[in-house]
C-alpha cells in the first residue's frame, strides 16, 4: 500500500525493503553500525525479547533454505515469532487467487513478511497489496538486496580488521559475471563507495553485461584475461559458481575443462598474503565443478562463512530498522543467557577483531 | 477421549471444536464478545504471553495456507509456540499407522491440536484418541466451523457499524450453493439468529440442496432467478466461487459464459448503497472465472478482507476459551509493544468503528 | 568441530549426541533423573523460559514427523525457538553443496541442530563441520540414539512402578530382529545394566545378527521358537513390526500368514499379569499386517504411548545437558501456567505412580 513505488522510497521504519537502490551511503552505514551493535545478540551472549508479540510470515515460493533460516533466525533472536510457508503448500494461488488477495490476506495475520518468489517484480506486487512491510528475499532475475548488503557489510568488516577501507579497495570478481545476479547487485550497491576498483575475470560468453561499463559512476572496471591478472593487487576476490552447461563455446569449454575457478595454489601464487576470499554460496563441491575449491578452506583470508554469519546480523538490523527499534531499545530488553552450548573444543572466532 | 460424541458437547474450556452445532446463541455471542475484546492484541497494540509454554501442533494433511497461518498467528499472538506439519511429511501414516495412534502420540507432545484433513469425520476420530483438545480446521465435505464463526462474527460487526443487527437481516447468497460447504455452514450457524432472510441465486444444477428447505427453522429461504432479484433489499451479499466445470448443463453454461458472478456495475445498479460484500476466499481472479470481480475492491462495503482479518480475532477467542482464559487474564499479561511496523502511508482502518 | 570422533566423546555440555556409546551407566542414569525432574514441565504444569533466545535448527532430510515434533516440542517447552526444515526444500545441496558447507552455514544461525538423514554416518559429518552441538535424530542404518534412550527410560519407569529394576529383568524381543535398528540400539544400550536377560523370537531369516551373540557382555540372549516361549517369565515384551515382504522363505511366510505378531489372547495366555508391552511405533494397523494388534490397547501393561510421552521428557533432558542447565536452573525459570487445556473427561494418568 505504498504511496510511491517502494523501490524508490528510502529504507526506514515501516517501509518495504525491495531493492538496494533504497539505500544512501548514510543509511547503509547506519544499518551496518546497527548490525555491529547486534553482534553480541547474534552470538548468543544475550537473549532479547524486543520483538515479543510480533509475527513474521516467511513465504518462500521457491526453496532457499539458508536464506530462509537466516531471516527466521534473525527474527527469533529479537524475540519475535516466525510462521513459515514453503512453496509446495500455496494451494489458494493454484486456485486462481491473485497476488493481491494472497498478500492482503496474509498481511492481516502478520507484522512483517519476508518473501522469496521466482518471478522478477512479484515481491513488489506483494508489497503493493500488503498492510505491513515486505522484505524481498530474492525475486528471480530481479533483486536479492539482503545478499548485497551482507556482502558489503562483510567487505567493510574484513577490510577493517586489515586496516583498510571499502573506498579505494580493489576487488577481483570472478566466475559467471553475466547471469550472476549477486555480482550485479554487489557492483550496484558499491557505487555508494567511491573509488572501488573491480578486476573482472570470466570465461568468454559469461562476461559482465555491457550496461555496467556504460554507467557514469565512480567505478573502474578492468576486464582481465586470467585469474593471475585478476588477483594482482586485489584486496578481495569474490567468486561465483559457473554452471558449465552455460558455456556454449567449444574452445572455452575445453580451456577450462579439468580446472577449477580458484584454488589454494592460485591464491598463494598470485594473491596478496592478506587476500580476502568471498563467495555468496552455495559453492558446487562436486567433482568436476568449476567453482571455488575446498582446499582454500583453511587459508586465513577465507571469509565465505563470515558472509553467512554476517547475514544474521544484517537481517537483525533490517528488522530493527523496519520496526523502529534502535540499539538502546534492543539492549534495554537484553537478558543474560544462562545457557551456553559452545562445543568443548574452542569455537573459532569469526574475526580476530571480534 | 470424549465421553460423548464431541460434536454434541458444548464448546467450552477443554473441549474439542468439531462442529458449529456445539454452539448456543449464548456461547457464540460470548465468543464474539471475547473476539471483540482481543482486537487490540490482534492489531499489535500489545504483546501478550498468556499462553507462554503452551504448544500448538498444527497438522495439515492437505494444504490450506491461509487457514493454517490464521490459526498459527492467533496462537502466537497469545504467546504460545507453534509446531507445524504439512501433508507431505506424514510418513508414519503411510506405513500403516492408524489415526488413533498418530493422534494419541502427537497429543502427548501438544497442549492443543488444529487439524485439517481431506476426509469427512476424520478430525473427530483424531479427537477421540487425543489427550488434548482438537480444533477442526476443515475435514473435506464435513465441517469447517471456524470459517462459519468468522463469517457470522463479520456479519455482526459489519451490520453493527451500520446500526443493524443480524436478526432480521436479509442476506443474498450467490454462487455454488450445492457444493459450497461454507454456505451450508453459514446457513446452519445463522439458525441461532431468528428472522434472518436468505435470497439465493445460483446457476441451475448448483442450487441449495433440498434438505435446507425442509427444515423447520426460523429462516426464510427465497430462490431468486437473477442477481438483481437476489440483491433487492439485501443488507449483505455473500459470494462463492463457481467452478465452471461443475456446470454440466449446456444452456446454463452458455448463459453465464463471459460473465462474472458479481461486479461493481451489478452492485451499483441493484444493491443498497450500504451493501456489505462478503466472500470466503480464495476468489478466482483468472480471466474467465465466474467469481466476484476485483472491480468491487474499492467499494465502501467490501468486507472480504475484514473476514480474514476477523479470522485472527475469532481464532484467538477460540484458543482462549479452550484454555480457560478470559479477557481479564489476557489483559493481565499485556505488555505495550514498543515496536511499530506500520507502513508510512496510513494503514486503512478495518472498520470505521474500529 | 570435534577434536575427537564425536561418537567417542562422553555426552555432556556442548557435545554432540551421535551414539548411545557416548553414555556410561552413570551419565545415562543422570540423564534419566533429569528427565524425571522435568516431568511437571512436560505435562504443562509450568511454563519455562530457560532457553529463551536459543534457536534450534531442526533439519529433517527424510520425513519422521513424530520424532521431529517430539524434539521440537521439547525445545519449545524449555522456552527456545524452533526453526524447521524438512527434506523437500534443501535446494542448495541439490546444487552440489557439500555437507560441510551446509552444516557450517546453518550452524551460524543456530545454537543447536537436530538432524535426521537417510545415510549412515552423515550426521557425524554434519557434526564435524558445525559450530554448535548436533543431535542425531536417526541416520539411516546408523543410530537413532534418543529412541534407545527413551526406551530404556521407559523400562526403568515401568519396572519401577512394579517394584522391579532394569538389572536382572527379562525382556522378550519379538519381530524383525535382523533389520530392526531400534532393537539393536536397545540391546546395545542395555549393556550398561548387568544381568538383563533377553528372550528372542523372530520369523526365520529375520533373526538377530550373529555378532550380537559373539559379544562378551553381561547379557544372556536366548532364542525362542514361539511367542509362548518368548513370553515365559518375561517382565517386558518389546515388539517390532515385520514387513512381510522381507520374508523370502515360503514356509515361514505360510506359517505366519493370517497371524499377528502379538495380540491380547497371546498376552493373557502366556504372559505375566504385570507384563509391560512396548513397541517403538509406528505399528502397522492395516489388515493383514504382522505387528502388535490393537486389541491389547486397554491392557494395563500397555506402555507404547508411555514411550512416546517419555520421549518428550528425555529430549528435554538432552537439551538441558547440552546447554549446561540443571534442574535447579530450570525450576528458577518456572512460572505457573495459568492455562489448562485438559479435556473435561479425566486425562488418563501416564503412570499410576505419576
UniProtKB/TrEMBL annotation, chains A, B, C:
<dbReference type="Pfam" id="PF00185">
    <property type="entry name" value="OTCace"/>
</dbReference>
<comment type="function">
    <text>Catalyzes the condensation of carbamoyl phosphate and aspartate to form carbamoyl aspartate and inorganic phosphate, the committed step in the de novo pyrimidine nucleotide biosynthesis pathway.</text>
</comment>
<keyword id="KW-0665">Pyrimidine biosynthesis</keyword>
<dbReference type="Pfam" id="PF02729">
    <property type="entry name" value="OTCace_N"/>
</dbReference>
<feature type="domain" description="Aspartate/ornithine carbamoyltransferase carbamoyl-P binding">
    <location>
        <begin position="16"/>
        <end position="156"/>
    </location>
</feature>
<dbReference type="GO" id="GO:0006207">
    <property type="term" value="P:'de novo' pyrimidine nucleobase biosynthetic process"/>
</dbReference>
<feature type="domain" description="Aspartate/ornithine carbamoyltransferase Asp/Orn-binding">
    <location>
        <begin position="168"/>
        <end position="321"/>
    </location>
</feature>
<keyword id="KW-0808">Transferase</keyword>
<dbReference type="InterPro" id="IPR006131">
    <property type="entry name" value="Asp_carbamoyltransf_Asp/Orn-bd"/>
</dbReference>
<dbReference type="InterPro" id="IPR002082">
    <property type="entry name" value="Asp_carbamoyltransf"/>
</dbReference>
<protein>
    <recommendedName>
        <fullName>Aspartate carbamoyltransferase</fullName>
        <ecNumber>2.1.3.2</ecNumber>
    </recommendedName>
</protein>
<dbReference type="GO" id="GO:0006520">
    <property type="term" value="P:amino acid metabolic process"/>
</dbReference>
<comment type="similarity">
    <text>Belongs to the aspartate/ornithine carbamoyltransferase superfamily. ATCase family.</text>
</comment>
<dbReference type="InterPro" id="IPR036901">
    <property type="entry name" value="Asp/Orn_carbamoylTrfase_sf"/>
</dbReference>
<dbReference type="GO" id="GO:0016597">
    <property type="term" value="F:amino acid binding"/>
</dbReference>
<dbReference type="GO" id="GO:0044205">
    <property type="term" value="P:'de novo' UMP biosynthetic process"/>
</dbReference>
<dbReference type="GO" id="GO:0005829">
    <property type="term" value="C:cytosol"/>
</dbReference>
<comment type="pathway">
    <text>Pyrimidine metabolism; UMP biosynthesis via de novo pathway; (S)-dihydroorotate from bicarbonate: step 2/3.</text>
</comment>
<dbReference type="InterPro" id="IPR006132">
    <property type="entry name" value="Asp/Orn_carbamoyltranf_P-bd"/>
</dbReference>
<dbReference type="InterPro" id="IPR006130">
    <property type="entry name" value="Asp/Orn_carbamoylTrfase"/>
</dbReference>
<dbReference type="GO" id="GO:0004070">
    <property type="term" value="F:aspartate carbamoyltransferase activity"/>
</dbReference>
